[in-house]
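To the structural biology subgroup,

Please find below the input and predicted structure for TolC family protein, which we are adding to the shared reference set this quarter. The sequence is reproduced verbatim from the submission form. If anyone notices a discrepancy with their own records, reply to this email rather than editing the shared folder directly, so we keep one authoritative version.
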Amino acid sequence: MEKVVILMSILLGYLGYSQSKLDSYIEAGLKNNEIIKQNNFDINKSMYALKEAQSLFYPTVSLNTNYTVADGGRTIDIPIGDLLNPVYSSLNQITNSNAFPSLQNQSVLINPDNFYDAKIHTTMPLLNFEIIYNKRIKSQQNSLQKIELEIYKRELVKEIKIAYYKYLQSVEGVKIYEEALKLVKENQRVNQSLFKNDKINRTAVLRSDNEVIRIQANLETAKQTSKNAQAYFNFLINQKLDATIETDQIETLPEDWLADNTQNREEIKKLNQVKELNETVGKLTKSYWFPTLSGFADFGFQDFDFEVNKDSRYYFAGLGLQWNIFSGNKNKFKLKQVEQDTQKISSQIDNVKQQLLLQYQISQNNLKSALEQFNANKNQKVAAKKYNEDITKLYKEGQAIYIELLDSQNQWVNTQLSTNIALYNSWIAYAELERANATFTLNQ
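Predicted structure (tokenized):
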């Protein structure tokens, strides 16, 4: 481990960059990414769903009115004449008068005619476990969506960093080929001059011409690769594909970057949240066996012919209790399904923990390997540069043949390219390790 830390320090000293520009690009990418915006809309929607579930605990108040006109249909017969007429007849005889008239039997329509009813109707749940667990489920679903968004953000940060390092790698590759082109063109000029003075044959001139053509082709390929890397990086941060990418120095990495942090990864948090959500669903299923209690109250007016007086006022209130007794074992079997899901999720958690730990260890090993390769290439680059300088001097003095010069120059160019590739591959490997370890700090 100490060796890896030393190699990382060498890498940092070689780079001398700061990540301030990269951090600003990451911030812009997280802010402008359309998928993140869409996920934020879903989170806001689930938050409103949670508030909707909370509102079920409050009373519901409504204004209800109706007016009825009726004729025909069922009636209620009231034999008032049969009951009172004999009494009234006796009273008339006693009083020798007609003070008590005869009455007719009445037939009243069951459906009220010319009748209105206007009331304020209020209902409120007093005991309802379904509402309680439904609110808890909405809250857990909201938390689950936030965790899923964090997972996507971490993946996006990793992709932005890798794209950034690949762009820097391509830019440096262009610079190496540009310098190589200057070198082979100088060789071309020297060889043409030597050929005119009959000091070398035409083969060396033709070979130098071919080297110029080869390096020019490689340079053009490197430029196109750099443009593609630039376009992909700008795509990730939702900018114009040809926007200029500014680079800055990379700041020192923390000393504890090798610490295992896989237990805190959002993937495990997500599965734990799913498990809690499933347990709440089980409690919701069990709530079928508990009674529900609600209250209601009506305050209003009702009368015929739109009359309003003290006798028209009324109130009506009460309680409602519902207790399910039997449903064909439907909820029993539903609860069995929930229990199976819980066991499945527990198994998934154990499996994912192992997968994440494997990913971390592989990323860690890849970073160690990349750093070792960079250190080896860096040493080879120093040696190749010295070798090329010596052969170039000997060639100009006529003490070396062109094949030796060409070999030394190719070694010099290739070691530069290999060192550049190994350099940024190390940073790409670090970005992979950072993702596997979930150590990048996401701004909430």
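Summary notes: The chain has two domains: 2-66+126-295+327-437, 74-111. Residues 74-111 form one domain.

Regards,
Lab coordination
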